[in-house]
Amino acid sequence: MTPYWEEDAEDGAGTMVRPYTITRGRTAPERDDFSLITVLTTVQDPRDERGAPVLPGRLQPEHRMILERCRRPSAVAEVSSDLGLPVSVTKILLADLVAQGLLLARAPLSVARAAGGADMGLLAAVRDGLRRL
Question: What is the DSSP string of the chain?
Fold first, then answer.
């Protein structure tokens, strides 16, 4: 995907205007536990705190694109790249969706454990192969 903002050839200041408006002026997410490899998944039947369905139509276009992208588990870095947005901006948008109950975020280790754990033999073989390079 191409970025949502275009650099203004006259003053060069256009690159930060769009991300600033996307985040409504926020420069840091409410949560600070996202890493580049945090796994994100869209909630299948999102409900608010009262149990009513959450209507995606109230979301910004970037939020809707994230929810569509995360129908399959995706890492923060993948989402950021697909949106063409800086990681810092993407993390703010992701935190919004997690806070609304529309998106699940899992640390990569919990995903590996759920899949049966990391194969230590394979990891050692990769490490040894990298050392030989």
Answer: ---SS---TTTSTHHHHHHHHHTTT--S-S-----TT-EEEE-SS-B-TTSPBP-GGGS-HHHHHHHHHTTS-EEHHHHHHHHT--HHHHHHHHHHHHHTTSEEEE-HHHHHHHTT---HHHHHHHHHHHHH-
> Are 20 and 62 in contact, with CB atoms under 8 Å apart?
no
Q: Residue 48: which of 101, 8, 96 has the closest Cα?
A: 101
- pLDDT at residue 57, as a whole number: 58
Burial string for 82-92 (b: 16+ CB within 10 Å, else e) reads ebebeeebbbb
At 87 the three-state DSSP class reads helix
Structure tokens at 82: 């697909």
Q: What is the mean pLDDT of residues 85-105?
A: 88
* Token pair 């049966």: residue: 116
- Total-model pTM: 0.63
Place of tokens 């030989």: 132
